Every structure is written in C-alpha cells, then in structure tokens.
Amino acid sequence: MKALPDMKKTNESLFTGAGPNTRLAHMGNDPSDYHGFVNPPVVHASTVLFPDAATMEKRAQKYTYGTRSTPTTDALCAAFDELEGSAGTILVPSGLAAISIPFLAYLSAGDHALIVDSVYTPCRNFCNTMLKRLGVTVEYYDPEIGAGIEALIKPNTRLIHTEAPGSNTMEMQDIRAIAEVAHRHDCVVTMDNTWATPLYFRPLDFGADVSIHATTKYPSGHSDIIMGSVSANARHWPKLEEARISLGICGSPDDSYQILRGLRTMGVRLQHHQKSALDIATWLEGRNDVARVLHPALPSFPGHAIWTRDFKGASGVFSFVLKAQGDKAKAKAHAFLDALSFFGLGYSWGGYESLAVPVNLSDRTIRKAPPEGPVIRLQIGLEDVADLKKDLEIGFAAAAEI
C-alpha cells in the first residue's frame, strides 16, 4: 500500500505565512499520521502499557498515562501553540481553571499579586478566597494604569494579571507597557485573552508570558463544551506543566476533539460576530435611551486608540449603559431583558446564539459602576442583524413603559 505524503512537510512553504482561516483548517493534526483521516481519533485512555520494565521505569515513551496526554489532547495543544506562538499549552476543565492553575503555579505564600480591577468576577472570587487563604497578598489596579503600574510593584510582587478588554466594561490595557515594567522586576505576566482569541491578539507577542482562554467561548462556538487552555512562553512553560501534573488536571479527549473541530470555523464565525456586533453597537450609540456604548472598536470609546494599535479585530461581546437612573433603573433593565426573544438570558458567550445579561459591578474597588444607569452586556451571535435590532427595539419599548 502506498504511504500517504506528509502534506505539511511537502508544502511547508505554503503554510508559512498562510492566512488565519487556512491555518485553522490545517493546524493541530496531520492526516498522514492517522491513515489519511482529516480529524484525529478520539483516544480514551487511563492506563497505557509499556513494552518492558526499563521503559516503564524511565517513562521512555511518548504516552504514559491518560492524564498526561493523549493523541487527541496533543492535537489541540499543538493547534493552540501554533495560534499563540507558545512553547506549550495545557488543557483544563474550565475557563476559571485556566486562571487558577497558573496562579497556583507561579505564586507562593508571602507573594504579592497585582490583579486588574476589571477582571472576570470568578477570578476575583478565587483571589479573595483561596489565594488569600494560601498566604498571597492580592491588590487590584486600574486597567488603564499602563507603565504606571511600576509604582504598585513591591519586592515580593511575583505576578501581574491582565485582561483586555476588561470583563463587562471593556477597558483596554497597554499590555506591552505593563509587561516591560513587570519583567524589569521579574514578575510573570498573565493575560486573559478570551475576548479577542489568538486570531485578533497574541499576548505573547506583546510581552505577556502566559495566555489564558476560556475555550468554552469562541473556540467551541456552540455553547456545549466547558474547557480552558493556558499557553506559556519557554521560560514559564515548565512550571505551568509541573503544576498541571501535580494537581492532576487535564482536559478530556472528547471535549478536546470538539474544541479542535470548533477551531476550524472560528475565523469565519468571528468575522460575522465582529461585523454584526459593530453594526449593532453603532446603532445603539445613536439611541436616546442609551447613555453609553462600551465597545473598544468604537472611536468614542476611551481605549479605542490602544485597540486600533494592538488588536487585529473585535469579537461579538460588548456592553451598553441603559439610560435609567434612580429607583426605576433596575426595573427598567429587567423589563428590557424580559422582553427579548432572540437574545437569551444566559451566562457565558461565544456561541452561535445572541445573549444578554445584566452586569453586576458591586465587587469593583476602582472602576465603579457608571452613574448613568445599569450596564447590560450583549453577545451578538450569528443571527441576522435586522432581526436582532427588532428584538432590541422591543426591549427598549418595554423599558420605556416603566
């Protein structure tokens, strides 16, 4: 039987510099490794057999136990490494685990960590409970601090966590400026890059050491998988992998297969999310019942210059401030949300469907809630924009009745 050619080696020059959708279609798996099948097999494994005791003693084979890796999880990790430009990637069971595992990897009792105030709320909960209980001092900082973060760095500061845009209120951060300062003080820089994905922003290219993703979101794209990924540069990869193994954390082969399949269409989906979201954000900005639209791709947004300079695109998530002050603010927000049909009321985002949620900013210590009214976060899905606008119109009409 004639052997299949290794297409990636044969046409290596074609893949170098190929466009994002081409790379997404081919990364992470070489069909020639699996008899020509374009998708890798789903390998379920706990026990892996060794040919002899010497091999077992030295772990002198590629696969040793199901929690370490399988061909399926390796394929997804290889895809993320190519997307991120990273030395290694770990897969974990959720987006929150993708934050907590690197924190546990790089922080010890007595250390000081700087966490952006616009951080993902469950991350704040983890910091305020488990990290503090383990003896780590946590301090929150203004997302727009930039190089000014140097004033907050202490002799025991070991980690600076960033997120851009910030959760719910979308503040932009100057990642390169923060990273340059951090590295002068030997601090590891982690970044939650779930919003942009590696297609629109590559944290490691801007000085971050670790890129964190809730792959539940756009890599999955179908609201049916919960998983996270963490990709690190060469210096910080060994500690990350050591922590994952020590904690016994791993992503499942089935979920890895589904995420890898989702990656194939992520570029096309993101283009649609981006176009629709910007259309709706611009439309909302012109409405009298909207106080502000929080979307970094809008020229009116305070962080727009950083977004334009550093990012290649925008995803489908943004927020707006409903013009509703006083005692009726909450009731108006609820009336708006309850009247929606195409927009589901549900947490998470990144799937094919549009979602809307009221935003609670009561845990903020620096960037407080805007005074003009309640914040509502939208995830613009793959529906037709005209239909989504009609749905939002119904919501605004319901709010006006309160």
Chart the SSEs and their pairings.
Blueprint lengths: L6 H4 L1 H4 L4 H7 L26 H6 L12 H14 L3 E5 L2 H12 L5 E5 L4 H13 L3 E5 L15 E7 L11 H10 L3 E5 L4 H4 L9 E4 L14 E5 L4 H11 L5 H33 L4 E5 L9 H7 L6 E6 L6 H10 L16 E4 L16 E5 L5 H16 L2
Parallel strand pairs: 2-3, 2-4, 4-5, 5-6
Antiparallel strand pairs: 1-7, 6-7, 8-9, 9-11, 10-11
Helix pairs in contact: 3-11, 5-11, 6-7, 6-10, 13-14
Q: Specify the oligomeric state.
A: single chain
Q: How much strand content do the residues show?
A: 5-15%
Structural class: alpha/beta
Mean pLDDT: 95
Which sequence of strands runs across the widest sheet? Answer: 1-7-6-5-4-2-3
* Number of E-state strands: 11
Low-confidence sequence ranges: 1-5
* Count of separate DSSP helical elements: 14
Computed over alpha carbons, the radius of gyration is 22 Å
The profile of the biggest β sheet is: 7 strands, mixed
Helix content: 25-40%
Order of helices and strands: HHHHHEHEHEEHEHEEHHEHEHEEH
Distance between the termini: 74 Å
Shape: globular
Can you tell me about this structure?
With 402 residues, the protein is of the alpha/beta class. Helices cover 38% and strands 14% of the residues. It contains 14 helices and 11 strands. Strands 1-7-6-5-4-2-3 form a 7-stranded mixed sheet, sandwiched between helices. Helix 6 (95-106) runs parallel beside helix 7 and helix 13 runs antiparallel to helix 14. The protein is globular.
